[in-house]
């Protein structure tokens, strides 16, 4: 993959994590990744609080996921998805992604957090 394939990389990344394949998703992410998430900024792949832990924790709480769409061009893309989580159904998200040297180097993760306070992180079963 080259630097001009952000749309393809983002689609492969999105398909991997919504199917629960954390390792495949992470293989598309740079070691020095920066992720702006709703509650924190994640810098780097490894270590406590790294992107590996961030994504693995999210996927571990996921019952199922659906990739809705991937929009983008050669340099950047957006992954739109809906997941069923242990604590909330229909958890909608968009990830804005940029790619450098064939790897995802920057993400902005935007989640619809409205359902979360009502759930109190109580496990739910999707309808």
Helix count? 4
How many structural domains in the coordinates? 1
Helix percent reads 25-40%
CATH architecture: Roll
User: What is the SS-derived class?
Assistant: alpha+beta
Global morphology: globular
End-to-end separation in angstroms reads 39 Å
CATH domain fold name: Nuclear Transport Factor 2, Chain: A
Give your account of this protein's structure:
- The chain has 127 residues and is of the alpha+beta class.
- 26% of the residues lie in helices and 40% in strands.
- The protein contains four helices and six strands, in the order H-H-E-E-H-E-E-E-E-H.
- It has helices at residues 6-18, 22-26, 51-60, 115-119, and strands at residues 29-36, 41-43, 62-72, 76-85, 91-100, 103-111.
- The protein has a six-stranded mixed β-sheet with strand order 2-1-6-5-4-3, with helices on one face.
- The chain is globular.
Topology, element by element:
Layout: H1 6-18, H2 22-26, E1 29-36, E2 41-43, H3 51-60, E3 62-72, E4 76-85, E5 91-100, E6 103-111, H4 115-119
């Amino acid at each position: 993959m080259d630097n001009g394939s952000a749309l393809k990389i983002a689609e492969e990344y999105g398909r991997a994590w919504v199917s629960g394949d954390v390792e495949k998703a992470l293989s598309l992410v740079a070691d020095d990744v920066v992720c702006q998430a709703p509650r924190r900024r994640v810098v780097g792949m490894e270590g406590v609080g790294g992107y590996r832990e961030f994504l693995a924790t999210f996927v571990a709480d996921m019952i199922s996921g659906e990739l809705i769409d991937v929009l983008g061009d050669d340099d950047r893309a957006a992954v739109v998805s809906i997941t069923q989580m242990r604590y909330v159904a229909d958890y909608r998200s968009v990830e804005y992604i940029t790619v450098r040297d064939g790897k995802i180097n920057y993400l902005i993760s935007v989640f619809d957090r409205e359902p979360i306070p009502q759930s109190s992180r109580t496990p739910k079963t999707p309808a």
